[in-house]
Specification:
binds adenosine-5'-triphosphate, globular, 5-stranded mixed sheet, 2 domains, about 20% strand, Heat Shock Protein 90
């Protein structure tokens, strides 16, 4: 085989392996949410069972209608989570195209909400109706998931997670800021956090610690988007990650109600 062909084949193999790693990391980040999602489904089932019992016991129309209403909304809540989970796990597209960053963030929030709630973490979301960026939806959701899971893991109870989405027209960026009130990162460790396998998370009693791949993949994703990612941190105060992606105009046919 001639060297040029060999290089081409190796390059293709590396790209393929990178994609596989990205997919594996996406699935493992969902693992961090397993206990909160199980908890949520337990609550939903309890609601369904209790209202089904009530509807069976009481024959009057008003009670039955109320029971059906409650069962329906509980089931819809469950469907929202499973749909979100499947969409997240599946790599839906390879294209970088106009995407509303607020929508992508909200879809990730559906999955992490219960985990944040269980750890008593308050969320402040500051965003206009929509902020359009040139983005690959599944990669950006993976990146946001990694930043939010890291933020949660850095915080004790009663922490605050602040999420800002903004359109920086002047500089041509669509931006997302993820801030936590967690432990912070010492200045001398900041240069390493985006490196593969750098982690300070020791394995817990179930042997699950950090792999140190989360931020390394975030960096790859930002590079593929020709974007920027910046981190500021103060030990004991918290950490702020700022993501900048090339902005895009809202696609034709999309009515931006924020202008009204
Ligand atoms: N918001 C944050 N607050 C404090 N430290 C952070 C924060 N985000 C990242 N870090 C530090 O950076 C390290 C690397 O983060 P990264 O997401 O790459 O790996 P990890 O979270 O340890 O493991 P994984 O994401 O694979 O589960 C973390 O171990 C932690 O020390
Ligand atoms: Mg992480």
């Amino acid at each position: 085989m001639d060297p040029a062909q060999q290089i081409a084949e190796l390059t293709q193999r590396v790209t393929q392996l990178e994609e596989e790693l990205m997919r594996a990391q996406r699935l493992s980040s969902v693992g961090a949410l397993a206990s909160s999602i199980t908890h949520e489904f337990n609550n939903i089932l309890t609601t369904v069972i209790n209202y089904a019992k009530m509807g069976v016991r009481h024959q009057d129309e008003a009670t039955r209608n109320k029971s059906f209403d409650r069962i329906l909304s509980a089931a819809q809540r469950a469907a929202k989570i499973t749909t979100g989970m499947l969409a997240y796990a599946r790599n839906t597209t390879n294209r970088i195209e106009p995407n509303d960053l607020k929508r992508l963030l909200e879809d990730v929030l559906v999955l992490v909400q219960k985990d944040l709630q269980m750890h008593r973490i308050g969320v402040d979301l500051v965003a206009p109706d929509s902020v359009w960026a040139m983005a690959n939806s599944s990669q950006i959701q993976q990146l946001l998931m990694n930043l939010i899971v890291n933020a949660r893991q850095a915080m004790k109870e009663n922490g605050r997670l602040r999420l800002v989405v903004r359109d920086n027209k002047a500089e041509g960026w669509a931006e997302i800021v993820v801030s936590d009130s967690g432990c912070g990162i010492p200045q001398e460790k900041l240069p390493f956090i985006f490196e593969s396998f750098y982690t300070t998370k020791a394995p817990d009693e179930r042997g699950q610690g950090g792999t140190g791949l989360g931020l390394a993949l975030c960096r790859r994703i930002v590079e593929a988007h020709k974007g920027r990612i910046r981190v500021e941190s103060e030990v004991g105060k918290g950490t702020t990650f700022t993501l900048k992606l090339p902005r895009s105009e809202s696609p034709a046919g999309f009515i931006d109600t924020s202008a009204a």
